[in-house]
Amino acid sequence: MPKFSPLLLIKLILWIAVVVSATRLLQKRKVSSKLRFFMLAAGVIVFGVIYAFIVQGGVNPSPVLSLRGVLSSILVKHTIAPPLLGMLIVLLVMGIVSNKSLCGWGCQLGLLQDLLFRVPTPKWKPPFWLSNSVRIIAFIALVGGMAWATFDWIAHVDPFLLFSSKWVLPALLFVSAILLASLFIYRPWCQFLCPFGLVSWVLEQVSILRPRIDHDKCLGCKNCVDACPTGAMADFYEDKKIHADCFSCGACIAACPRDEALMWRGPRRGKNKETKG
Ligand code: SF4
Ligand code: SF4
Asked: How many C-beta atoms lie closer than 10 Å to residue 61's C-beta?
């Protein structure tokens, strides 16, 4: 598991900068498909490829690694690693402030899957109950394995090793399957397996900034629901209390033909007409 290092700190600062910039762009309705493509590609290159090169045999930080590091220090070593815990808290707070935006704009594996999903192939949007049930089971296996058998299943097939110089065959086969599936399913690792994805999904239920509909201004065309690669926008549209993962991609806002009907913003005080009219 990683120790805190200057490279880790620099990546954390870069992530914060990207999330702040992305949030501003979302708030200003400036996230076009082209801009999103550019940011995804740049993120894979900087956070994935270049970072793999500069850490040279060390660990390339990822949200998943920070969570696994904290879990492992608590459940296996029965200690607390304050730097890793601090980093994880910062990452999770970013998700609460601007809904899962680190996953959407900073995580190297998430960005690569997102890019591959743009290839024009038949798509399948898995029902949320299915993807989340599998993810919960995977999380229980991770925590249970660490607590009772010091076994971390992700360590044996870690798809993030793609962005390192430590390639091992099982991990390469596993990440190849994920990347292949990404052509047809939006972020299969994130939706079905990622432990950070699950924890941040729980926290995003109380996120501050997220897509919010003003049903007074909404035309009812549901372009936003169609544009969303997950079930999140359908849940937002219906004002459901629990929503599926929203990866802050901005596709819903870009698809909305009416300014201010759908915005990336916080709740409006004293105005509860966000509910369907
Ligand atoms: S859910 Fe996806 S984007 Fe988020 S940490 Fe996991 S792999 Fe990265
Ligand atoms: S399109 Fe879906 S995933 Fe993307 S920002 Fe909108 S609700 Fe979130």
From this structure: 28
